[in-house]
Each structure stands twice: as C-alpha cells, then as structure tokens.
Amino acid sequence: MYSVFIVDDEPIVLEGIRTTIDWENSNFSFAGEASDGEIALSMIQEIKPDILITDIKMPFMDGLALSAAIKKIQPWIKIIILSGHDEFDYAKKAISIGIEDYLLKPFTSKEIILSLQKAAERIDRERNQLSDINRMKEELKSSEKIVQRDFLSAVVHGEIDVASVMQKSAEYKIDLFSRYYKVLISKIESSTQNQQNQQMACSLVNSYSSSWEQTNCFFEHNNRLICICKGSNQNELEDNTYHIAETIEHIVTQNEDCNVITTIGKTVEHLSSLPESYEDAKQIIEMSNPDIHTRIISSDDIKTEGSNLLFLKENDPMVERLKYASKNDISIIIEESMKLINNNPGQFQFVASYLLGDLIFAVSKLIENLGGNIQDVKPEILTRSYIDSAIQNSETFSETLKSILTFSLEYRDSKITGKYQDVILKAKKYIDEHYADQNTTLTTVADVVCLSPNHFSTIFSQECKTTFIEYLTDVRIENAKRLLKETDMKGYDIAYECGFSDPHYFSYIFKKNTGLSPREYKGNL
Fold first, then answer.
1. Is the domain of 440 the same as that of 414?
2. What is the dihedral of CA 369, 372, 373, 376, to 10 degrees?
3. Which of 125, 247, 275, 493 is the most exposed place for a label (fewest CB within 10 A)?
4. Does residue 423 lie in a domain region?
5. pLDDT tens profile 280-311
6. The domain spanning residue 56 has which CATH number?
C-alpha cells in the first residue's frame, strides 16, 4: 500500500484526483490534501506519505519550492508535478530536484494512475536495493567506511583530542564543526527476534542516513545507530534532531515486526563535550524499559526543574535501579529479595527489615530528586510500625514490597510525563479555540507552545497516542457533527465553519471517519 498526498490550489483538481482513484480497491491510500505549499509542508512532515502529487503554481509556496523542501527532509517521497505551463525551465528545475513525473494540465485519470504506478514501481525498486543486506555488509566492511566509523566512534567516546579531530575530519572529508551538538542513539530490533527483518531495517536506515543534513551517522553495533546532530542555534538543532528521530522511526516501522527506541542526549557546545551527550543518550537507552518498543526519549524529558534524574548518584544500587525500572521489574526485585531471604534461613525478620529499609531509603531519595518529599507524599512508610507490620511473614512482606515499588514507579512516571502536561493542555485549548481557522497547523500550534514543530509532533503523538493531524481532524469532525445536530446550516457552510477549505474534501473526510456522508448523518438524527 502506497500513501498519496495531494496539493493544489484549485478545488476542482483536488476533488478530481481524490474521486478518480478507487482507493479502497487499489494499492494506494489517500493520506490527505492541502491547498497551498506552506500548509502542505507542515502536514507532510507528520504524515510522511510515499507519493506527493503537487501543482507547480500555488500561493505562499509553489510546487517546486515545496518539492525541494520535501526532498531535503523526506528524500524517499516520490513527487509528481502538475503544471499548466509547458515550459522547459519548469521541467528542467523539476528534474534537478528529483521529480518522479511531470504532467501537463489538463490530464486524464488514466495518466494520473499510470504516473502513480510508475512511482510505486520506483519505490519497490529502491526498497529492494536499500534492503540489500549484503550491500550494507559490504559498505560497512569497506576500508573507508571502517575508518570513518572508527573515527566518529572515537570522537563520541572521547578517545581523541580536539586537535586530532580537526586534522582527521579534514583528512576524512567529514564536516564535524558547528555551534551546538546533540548525540542521538537508535536501537533497532525485531519483535520476533527475526535477524533478517532487523538487518533489513538497519540497512534502510543506513542508506537514507547519508542524505540527512547537519548529521554524521554510523552503526556502533549491528543494530545501534549513532548520530551526531549539529545546529547553528539550539532551536535549529532541536528541530533537526527530532526530525531525524521521527524519520528513523518511520523507516524502521515500515516493517511491522521491527521497533526502535531512540534516545537524545543533552545539547553541548564543544566537540570535546560530545562524549557527555553520548553518555547521556547511552544511559537512557541501556536502562530503558523493556516493555517499551518504539519511542523517542530525550534526556530533557527525564529532567525536572532544578534537578536531574538521569545523573542522580547514590551509593545504594537500588536508587540507580529505580530511575529506569519498569513495572515488569517489580516482580524481579521481589523475587531477588525473597531469594536473599531464603539463602539466610532463620533470619527472616532481620533480612526482610534490612531489605525493606533499603528500599524505603531509595524511594525517598528518588522522590526527593524529583522535587517531592516522602514525608508529604507517603509518610506512613517511615514509621517503625509500618516495617514491623510488613515483616510478619513472607506473604505480607512481598505485598508491601510490591506496594512501595508500584507507588515509586507511578510517582516517577507522573513527574516525567507530566513535564509536557501543560504543553499538551495548552495545545488542545488552542485547537479547541482555533479549529475553524484553516491556518491552524502543526507549525502554528508548535509556535504557541514554544517548541519546534518536530519536537512538538513527537511529544503530542507519544503523550496523546494519536498524531496532531488526527486529533485536529477529530475535533473538526466532532464540531461538524454538533452543527449538523443543532443547526440547519448547509454542508458547505459547516465545512468552512469547521476549518475545511473544500466542502468536497470535508464530505470525504467526514464519511471516512463516521462511515456516513454529512447528509446521511443528518438524515439519521
């Protein structure tokens, strides 16, 4: 199945293409549409279609500018240009950008379908080529690749001084110099432990990574990609890093058997500080929850105001363990505790008391580091009577451990995910108030909450379990339902009232979401 996005400022053209193709019975799916390049760019960044059909002449951002921008950020997208201008200069520029096909208006439905099929065949060929495991192995084995990989590895591990970095980067033709840096690590795995699927996903990522701007990438292990991301300012760096993280996730998850955890280290200003960002990302990925399959995690996401959970250091190993433990680890910790007790027969109460005290201390330090106070949030566990009651027998002891561990992980997770609670609430409030504005896009809402578009897109989808565009569309459809129920407004008026630029597109999306056309929906009320 190949997803298709359409951009044209003429509603009749949009409707014509949308209704020409039998989406349900073809190899193509309709991913969305827009009436100008600026809005389209924001939507495409999130939707990530396989094929883009775009008019060449549009307000704000024309089709060639849109195509050039898309080829930089999502090079796999195949682009079909529509034009009413039979001019060589347009075609020449389109070819230089890497356009798949160039159709002159007026065109027939047969021409559109043939062009889509041609693009799909090209996608298949590229996927097969990019998924060639032997090709990846040969590339990684080549002496030049090995030298570059070893050099970049030495840089992030701090095994080479800055003077040598400057000398060798020039020698190897690697541009490493920038104002700001972040290190990103992606761990790619097969859910079923299928090594071929895993290697194919890694191969795809490896092939596309060479086209990413402001980034130097290498595979540290067979399935662990390291990216050194650069930016002239911190906002540019953040947007670039999250864009790459989302791109990696999109490429890997094209194979339903594969998943990827991507972690992002802190921002640093000097090459000599790159190991700090690398260690930052490495600690998160090595201690990430095993039950999390695909996620993007930044070190900023596990920092709280005035404190840093990631770098909490304590002599007690339980404190370190609680920072990253998952709910699956609760039973493991309890089993380990009971095993220690069983290895010391006749000393149940003594050992249990020691273990429980150690856990309470660790939980107290964790909560303190997250800005809380154990005496405020769970004072009862500090009393002697609580411990005495818990160590009466092994069953009570196990239940007490489970209760404390569950509480500590829930408290930790509430503080970490709660970091963006205000951002999500503010974004949803803005959407509720501005859904009727056709210019309400991912970019405009990201500006409102003071995040880069790619960072906001990641946070929104992970916190809300839906994409920004899906959420905005749902809000618009729900308000359309309300107007259909409560008013006698015409369908085309409701479309404009709910933020849709084209009544026909509104009808299509309404039926896609509800199973009924607006007229049928109102008739059933």
1. no
2. -160
3. 125
4. no
5. 899 888 766 555 567 888 887 765 443 444 44
6. 3.40.50.2300
Same domain as 142, residue 112:
no
Report the alpha-carbon angle 499-504-509, nearest 5: 65
Same structural domain for residues 200 and 63?
no
DSSP 193: -
DSSP codes joined into one string, 297-339: EEGGGGEETTEESTT---SSHHHHHHHH--THHHHHHHHHHHH
The three-class DSSP label of residue 274 is helix
CATH of the domain at 160: 3.30.70.270
What's the first-to-final CA gap in the chain, in angstroms?
36
Please state, in angstroms and rounded to a whole number, the distance separating the CA atoms of residues 28 and 7.
16
Least confident range from 112-116, 148-152, 201-205, 320-324: namely 320-324
Question: 513-519: long-range contacts at Cβ-Cβ below 8 A with a sequence spacing of 24 or more?
Answer: 513/473, 513/474, 513/477, 514/477, 514/481, 518/480, 518/484, 518/491, 518/494, 519/491
Q: In the sheet that 224-231 helps form, which strands lie side by side, from edge to edge?
A: 215-221, 224-231, 180-190, 258-264, 295-298
* pLDDT tens column, 197-218: 998 899 889 888 888 889 999 9
- Our count of domains for the chain comes to 4
**pLDDT band for position 79 (cuts 50, 70, 90):** very high
User: Can you tell me whether residue 214 is helix, strand or coil?
Assistant: coil
Euclidean distance between CA atoms 512 and 142, whole angstroms: 50
Q: Give CA–CA dist 98/68, Å, rounded.
A: 8
Domain of residue 385, residue span: 317-418
Q: Alpha helix locations (H) across 325-452?
A: 328-342, 348-369, 374-377, 384-390, 394-417, 421-434, 442-448
Query: Do 364 and 502 belong together in one domain?
Result: no
179's tokens: 């104002």
Residue 43, classed as helix, strand or coil, is helix
69 & 160 share domain:
no
